[in-house]
Amino acid sequence: MVKHDFKVTTKWQGGREAVGEVAGDVISEQISIPSELGGNGHGTNPDELLVSAASSCYIISLAAVLERAGFNNITIDQQSIGTAVFENSKFKMESITHFPKIKVDNPEQLETKLPKLLKIADNNCMISNSIRGNVQVNIQPNILKQ
Question: How confident is the model at residue 74, as a pLDDT?
Answer without folding.
Answer: 97
